[in-house]
Amino acid sequence: MTTPPDSTLNAFSNTLTGNATQSGRDSADLQPYLVVLSGRDQGKQFPLAANRHILGRELSADIPIADPKISRRHCLLAINGRQAHLEDLNSTNGTFVNDRRISRHPLQLLDRIRIGDTYLKVDYKLPSEAVSEQALYEAANIDSMTKVLNRNAFISRAQQEFSYCKRNRSRLTVMMCDADHFKLTNDNYGHLAGDQVLRDLAKILQAEMRHEDLLARYGGEEFIMLLREISAEAAVALAERIRLTVLKHTFRYQNLTIPSTLSIGLCTRRVDAPMTLDDIVRTADDALYRAKKNGRNRVEIGN
Q1: What is the value of pTM for the model shown?
Q2: What is the pLDDT of residue 127?
Q3: Is the C-alpha dihedral spanning 99, 105, 110, 113 positive or negative?
Q4: Residue-averaged pLDDT of the chain
Q5: Top-level CATH class of 31-137?
Q6: What DSSP line would sit under 86-153, residue for residue?
Q7: For residue 27, what pLDDT band results from cuts at 50, 70 and 90?
Q8: Which of 243, 245, 240, 205 is nearest to 226 (CA)?
Q9: What is the bridge-based pairing of β-strands 299-301 and 262-270?
Q10: What does the alpha-carbon distance between residue 47 and residue 124 come to, in Å, rounded to a whole number?
Q11: What angle do CA 19, 127, 152 make, to 5 degrees?
Q12: 152, 31 Cβ separation under 8 angstroms
């Protein structure tokens, strides 16, 4: 594919920073950011402080994007002053700018990048603007106590995952996790101690999940995980590993040691036409109820 001539080299008004400068902002104060426009990280932005950034699915990428259609090292985004270039790194599914597949391409103002099912754009803004936008993103999507997704953000992202699995008839697992006797924890040790237990539980769950999995605080002492393309056997093994890790973990707040265990209900399904996300969540929640009823500190599998 022939790369079109880069008009940004001769006309500053056509550069990524040109429009912002014409709006009355000094380009010297503007910094480049990569903004996620769709997908599970929608609204998130990454500062482009270095000259070269590898985008990919693997965690070692400079900018990791949790999208299964993205290659481990998918593309290179190069920033040189007012210029930005995007280069595909022989990815499986290609790199697109404004829905045209590219090998190497200069980015213009308002260009939309697509890798996998994720849309992105490069934007120049004041650092204070980026801080404010990041605060708004976290307020809308992140649980302030545990720093994982909140319920609303989870539902939105989980629906996208479900739609993907439905198109591809992929497996989807929902795992519901609930801290046992949490009311007694609050009553006996105080609400601040209970808050610390929830923060520790979130960290344990995050340590066990893959980058592409979803984790959220679903309400109170309840967490929910969503995992794509994992077998029922592997899901049970993961749930048991999490349960044992929580059982062996020493939960502490100040000079207090707080005994805590976890009950887990899970459901794994290969998604087909008549099924809904609510069906899978409800089945996992019913399994969690059985785990509580059957003595707690156990894993139950949805029927």
Answers
A1: 0.79
A2: 92
A3: positive
A4: 90
A5: mainly beta
A6: EEE-S-SS-EEETTEEESEEE--TT--EEETTEEEEEEEE-HHHHHHHHHHHHHHHB-TTT-SB-HHH
A7: low
A8: 205
A9: parallel
A10: 10
A11: 95
A12: no
Query: Helices (H) and strands (E) in the chain — how many of each?
Result: 7, 18
Q: Where are the domains of the chain?
A: 31-137, 142-301
Contact 288, 264 (CB under 8 A): yes
> Going by DSSP bridges, is the β-strand pair 52-56/63-64 parallel, antiparallel, or unpaired?
parallel
Q: Three-state SS for 186? A: helix
Instruction: Quick: pLDDT tens for 225-266.
Output: 999 999 999 999 999 999 999 999 999 999 999 999 999 999
SS3 category, 212: coil
Of residues 58, 138, 208, 221, which has the active-site annotation?
Answer: 221
Q: Which of 104, 58, 101, 37 is nearest to 77 (CA)?
A: 104
| CA pair distance 246, 240, nearest whole angstrom | 10
- 289 CA to centre of own chain: 27
Q: Please determine whether the domains at 31-137 and 142-301 fall in the same fold group of CATH.
A: no
Q: Name the pLDDT band for 67 (thresholds 50, 70, 90).
A: confident
Domain 142-301 indexed as CATH 3.30.70.270? yes
Residue range 4-17, pLDDT digits in tens: 333 333 333 344 54
CA distance 205 to 207: 5
- Residue 24: band (very low, low, confident or very high) from pLDDT cuts 50, 70, 90: low
129 labelled catalytic: no
Q: φ, ψ for residue 193 (rounded to 5)?
A: -65, -40
The residue type at 158: A
The Cα–Cα gap between 172 and 280 comes to 8
